[in-house]
Amino acid sequence: MKLLNLIAAASLLVLTSCSGDAANTGQAEAQNFLDEYSKTYQDLDYEESLASWDLNTHIVEGDTTATVRASAAGEATAKFVGSTEVIDRVRELLADPEGLTPLQIRQLEVVLFRAGSNPQTVADLVTEKIKLDNELIGILFGFDFQIDGKSVTANEIDRILREERDLDKRLAAWTASKEVGRPLKPGLARIRDLRNSTVQALGYDDFFSYQVSEYGMTSDEMMTLMQQIAREAYPLYRELHTWARYELADRYGAETVPDLIPAH
After folding, report:
1. pLDDT, position 142
2. pLDDT at site 15
């Protein structure tokens, strides 16, 4: 009996040792991947941030240099984070979660989530999305806002809406601020379709379900939560809305208190 107990104990020790070695090996492989991924991603993200800043600040009519650079940087990042090599390797590592630390599991899930919006299995769609995204940014930041036929800056519109008490002037400024929506509208509709199509390549129903998955929820669960919050917040919202209507009517000299607050 003692001999059997000794054999059993020895077997358990060997199995435990093998299990520990496997876990250590899995953790080491995962960490090597994460370290290499992080280094490459940081370098690409830094270049993309510089290009994006240039696109937002260096606006010269007819000069597409900033747009081209931003698109190239965005495509380089997308090709890396959404590459089939990255996706396959992460899935391989996550296939044995018991050999990983909780932090490594979470980090790998983030890597896979990030790949979801730029999977290279649909590289043409990803490239089109990035290019269009940068074109829309150029339109937004380069738009010629006008009030009464005169060009104004976005900062000037903000100042009017912050300080002006004349409702006609406020309405003119608010209306001017929305005119950028006209040239943006076609592109925004296309961006919506491209976002839906790219994430569907990794099994998501649409871009909304992709975003919601970051919270560990389905689209239905998120909508149920939003509806619950809206119901619970409504009594307080109703009181605040009533107070705001009377305060704003007094501030702008309205003859009657409106049921709905005018947007301007």
Report:
1. 87
2. 43
Check whether residue 200 and residue 223 sit in a common domain.
Answer: no
Cα 169 to Cα 151, 181, 245, distances in angstroms: 15, 20, 20
Does 209 lie in the same domain as 230?
no
Task: Say which residue, 65 or 83, is predicted with more confidence.
Answer: 83
Same domain, yes or no: 189 and 263: no
Residues 29 and 67 in one domain: yes
> Do 9 and 88 reside in the same domain of the chain?
yes
Tell me, yes or no, whether 88 lies in a domain: yes
Q: How far is CA 128 from CA 4, 134, 193, 205, in A?
A: 68, 10, 11, 20
| 205 shares its domain with 238 | no
- Distance between CA atoms of residues 116 and 70, nearest Å: 20
CB 104 within 8 A of CB 30: yes
The domain in which residue 254 lies consists of 218-264
Residue pLDDT, tens place only, 154-200:
999 999 999 999 999 999 999 999 999 999 999 999 999 999 999 99
What percentage of the chain exceeds 70 in pLDDT? Answer: 90
